[in-house]
Design goal:
Elements (H helix, E strand, L loop, with lengths): L6 H5 L6 E3 L17 H18 L16 H8 L9 E3 L2 H8 L2 E4 L2 E7 L7 E8 L4 H4 L7 E5 L2 E2 L5 H5 L6 E6 L1 E2 L4 E2 L3 E5 L2 E4 L3 E9 L2 E8 L12 H16 L3 E5 L5 E3 H11 L8 E6 L2 H8 L10 E3 L15 E6 L6 H9 L4 E6 L7 E7 L9 E3 L1 E6 L15 E2 L16 H11 L14 E5 L9 E3 L6 H4 L2
Parallel strand pairs: 14-15, 15-19, 16-26, 19-20, 20-24
Antiparallel strand pairs: 1-21, 2-22, 3-12, 4-5, 4-25, 5-6, 6-7, 6-8, 8-11, 9-10, 13-14, 17-18, 17-23, 21-22, 21-23
Amino acid sequence: MRYISSSYTRYLLAIAIVFLLATCKDDEVEPSNTTATTEENEYVNNWILENMKFWYLWNDKIPANPDQTKAPADFFESLLYTSEDRFSWIQENYQELLNSLQGVSKEGGYEYRLYRESSSNSNVIAQIVYIKPSSPAEQAGLKRGDVITHINDQQMTLSNYQTLIGSIGANHTLRYRPLLIEEEKFDTEKTASITTVEYQEDPNYMHTVIESGDHKIGYFVYNFFAVGPTSTSTTYDDEMESVFADFKSQGITDLVLDLRYNSGGSETSANNLASLIGTGVTSSNVFLKREYNEDVENEIINDASMGEAYLTSNFKTKASNVGSQLQNSRLYVLASSRTASASELVINALKPYMDVFIVGDTTYGKNVGSISLYKENDSKNTWGMQPIVVKVYNSLNQSDYSKGFVPNILNVDNSLYIYPLGDTRENLLSLALQQITGQATGGRLANREKKQFIGSSLDEKARGFTLNVDQVDIKKVIVH
């Protein structure tokens, strides 16, 4: 077996190896390391290079003599195989990254989509798409549909919106126009003061059963994949099990899974969700296959405790699985251009076992993953990096969604008149319900006030566009 130096023992995760389908580099938080000395940079860069040479999916493409005097972020960028890799990234504070993966961040408690206000001006607006329970935003009276125009008394424009959006991690003020959906208009402008907090978000946002004729339709809004509020907790997955136990006991005949705001997370939770939905899936059925570079894959295959079987993960056998109850063995997924990574993994993994019917926009397109690497208890190196290390496949060896999954019903969902989530008039839900029941339920405002989409708050999250593949035992192979 190939021996990995003892330095890897200090470098890799102390609790678990975390694999990520991480966000584009354009969306990451820029580290501030302008005061670091050349010696300090070289210390960090030696660690970066050693790990990249082993883990990176394209490790044979790393430059032979990279300049190790560069700042760590620039050095990391210089190693990337950019013709294939637009996803690997690095962050100066690894603890903030780990917190974010579990849904913890300092924030006001609202998510939004950014639009250009009009083609005739350069103004940018942010429409709130959901408010987090018991958050400062909820306490301030904000709600889904409200349109933000100013942050800290500055009008958002094409030239300043990124700077203004970057400031809302601290206390801030908003000027906004409340959506009066029943009155079919926006109210006069109001002001809200938001005091940010360290907020722990629960991904199980809402669930309900909608009855229509002989249909009982389970509707589940799931906003990111996380096992629990900490890496050792299963609270969120346990809650998910309870949701599906409720769906099963109520005898649902159809299921609508709302992943439009879900840009990824834990593979363990993705497996949990898919195992609760898939028709006829048990622990005997393949959920996921992994492909690494030759060095990593050889380590796994040649290890007696792991072997080739370790490259495959199976579904779990779940008592609360609802797959056998679903008409035509069909799952309806509500998606957006920010539905990514772990969400796409669920779609891809279920396709061999059932019909997955997608309503909304083409998904993001992320079929590769990266490993989270950092050094603990090293005051000279607080960096964490996510180099791409793995490509994922389903049981039919399919991994052909690098450009996203194209929906069965295309609707980019960019009207400013949006109903509450779970309201049968809500745009994407109403389209799914019409497919299920044959009856139109949509609100008549869905085609009004369509705007040019610019971006989403999901783009700014460290957990965004991630797939944290369950790889705890890989330490037995890599770390000696």
